[in-house]
Amino acid sequence: MQTTQTPMMAAQLPQVHAPRNDGTALDLDWVASVQANTSAIERRAASLPGRRSVKKDYQAAWLCKAVSLMDLTTLSGDDSEGRVRRLCAKARQPVSQALLEAMGMEGLTTGAVCVYHDMVETAVDALRGTNIPVAAVSTGFPAGLSPFHLRIQEIRDSVTAGAQEIDIVISRRHVLTGNWQALYDEMREMREACGDAHVKAILATGELGTLRNVARASLVCMMAGADFIKTSTGKEPVNATLPVTLTMIRAIRHYQGQTGVKVGYKPAGGISKAKDSLAYLSMIKDELGDRWLQPDLFRFGASSLLGDIERQLEHYVTGCYSANWRHAIG
User: Fold this and answer.
1) What's the whole-model pTM score?
2) Active-site entry in 65, 90, 266, 308
3) Is 10 domain-assigned?
4) How many domains would you assign to the chain?
5) pLDDT given for residue 55 in this prediction
6) Binning pLDDT at 50, 70 and 90, where does residue 177 land?
7) Between the ranges 16-30, 180-194, 266-280, 312-326, where is the mean pLDDT highest?
């Protein structure tokens, strides 16, 4: 007898864990061969939101899936222990209990909590007893221009403090000058400093100039051992976009085709509406497949997104939209 899987059941599939990316030797011929057809990429990205639409039960299930893939984040100069603990409480219970019960979605949490190094120990303590990992932004975030030995030490300190994931920022100048060896060596040393912690390489795509640069930087970082490639810090004038996403996930697909290794993807910055999350998830499903719809291979770097998703879920359950203040993230 074949069991039919409901949308909500699909949103709660058990987590799996992809093997680490050990990287490869730097292949400059492979890097030089990488191109990006900007007009074609932009046309493909522009067509997606209008062609991929889900409604009712399926939309609610996809939105719950988006919550489970979220790195709930606070990266502000006025962060405090109290704010981080409230954020961690939200990560444990991202959607109100009443809504979860109405949807049959018990046990929903976010994918991780992302904080500055100084707040890692606080977040680890607040999440004790859960399976929610703490991610730390390191290496002189967001510019990545502090002395290199300090960036490496910051990674090690964050891992010692309990961070299970490290979001590093690359030196953009290496991409802009085409110094792929320098980018590879930098990424490789940062990867080694992370030890057992997974490393997400932030490309700051809004500062790389062209989609070809984005594609080549993505490939070099994966060659150097990045477990994830991430669009941006959230601090640049232009952050995650669908054309950049398409460019980066096709680089991931190409890398997997050549090496057999799956690398994760994280769009960050500027994704604040529930409908935007659906467009990103649709693109991931179309281009990479269902396996990438798990938190070990996909994350949203967002916080304001959660508030809008909660409002949409409340509308799904009650038929009414609630005020934004009812869904504060922290």
Assistant:
1) 0.93
2) 266
3) no
4) 1
5) 86
6) very high
7) 180-194
In 28-164, the DSSP E strands lie at: 70-73, 112-116, 134-137
> From start to end of 11-162, where are the E strands?
70-73, 112-116, 134-137
Query: Which tens digits make up the pLDDT trace of 123-176?
Result: 999 999 999 999 999 999 999 999 999 999 999 999 999 999 999 999 999 999
Runs of H (alpha helix) within 210-267: 211-223, 242-259
Tokens read off for 131:
């399976």
Q: Which of the following is catalytic: 65, 90, 200, 230?
A: 230
230 is catalytic: yes
We report the CATH number of the domain holding residue 275 as 3.20.20.70
Report CA 281 to chain centroid distance, whole Å: 12
Task: For residue 131, give its domain range.
Answer: 23-327
Check residue 3 and give its pLDDT: 36
295: cis peptide before it, omega within 30°?
A: no
* 3-class DSSP state of 5: coil
226 in a structural domain: yes
Please report whether residue 16 resides in a domain. Answer: no
| The one catalytic residue among 65, 71, 167, 308 | 167
The verdict on residue 14 lying in a domain is no
> Got the DSSP string for 101-127?
HHHT-TT---SEEEEEGGGHHHHHHHT
Query: Is there a catalytic annotation at residue 262?
Result: no
Cα angle 65-71-73, degrees, rounded to a multiple of 5 = 135
Looking at per-residue pLDDT, the higher value among 17 and 58 belongs to 58
Residue 286: active-site member: no
264 contacts 200 by C-beta, under 8 angstroms: yes
Query: 9: pLDDT confidence band, cut at 50, 70 and 90?
Result: very low
* Long-range contacts of the stretch 251-257 (C-beta < 8 A, 24+): 251/34, 251/215, 251/218, 251/219, 251/222, 252/218, 252/222, 252/288, 253/287, 253/288, 254/34, 254/219, 255/219, 255/222, 255/223
Task: For residue 4, name the pLDDT band (cuts at 50, 70, 90).
Answer: very low
